[in-house]
Amino acid sequence: LLNKEKMNHRLMAPLYKISDSYFFAPARGQRTDTIIKNPNCNNYCVVDAKYYAAKNIQTSPQLADIVKQFYYSEAVKLIEPSAKIISSVFVFPGKSGNIESIHMAKKENKKNYDSFDCLDDNYSPIICIYQDPIELIMHYASTKKLISLSSKIVELCS
Question: Is the dihedral of CA 40, 43, 44, 45 positive or negative?
């Protein structure tokens, strides 16, 4: 991808308090797959590549993956406070897929949910995009950049 930003060395790591002393554990710190910076402004996109098809709720990311993505976005906000937009993206293998985005909502006793139920102010949505794995492998094998995927991601952090 184009416009990759190296930030893992700046992300958060646990600080353990043991017997009134603090011990930092940088080896246990956060590590993202990829962070893309919009070349035209100070906006970022936290990208996590998934290696399974997300065709429906049963094959979609588990809560642990979703929560981890929320924390990565929050970490980027802390180390880049002047950033106006920090988007979050899951990239799934495939030419297309049904899941467009992931939002959090309160559990309620109802059958139908809509956009009013989304808690996007508290949990930034995760946009889901799909990438043809054969095209990806061909680009990787020939050390070419995936311009179309890069452009799609940069557009999300505009």
Answer: negative
Within 10 A of 94 (CB to CB), how many other CB atoms are there?
A: 15
Task: Please write the tens of the pLDDT for every residue from 70-117.
Answer: 999 999 999 999 999 999 999 999 999 899 999 999 999 999 999 999
Q: Could you tell me which residues are beta bridge partners of residue 101?
A: 127
- Provide the whole-model pTM: 0.91
Strand-pair partners of 92: 130
> What stretches of the chain show up as alpha helix (H) in DSSP?
63-79, 133-141, 147-156
The C-alpha atoms of residue 129 and residue 142 are separated, in whole angstroms, by 23
Give pLDDT, residue 99: 94
| Distance separating alpha carbons of residues 4 and 33, to the nearest angstrom | 10
9 token code pair: 């060395």
Pick from 92, 151, 94, 100: which is nearest to 125 by CA?
100
Contact 2, 150 (CB under 8 A): yes
Distance CA 156, CA 149 (A): 11
DSSP single-letter state for residue 109: S
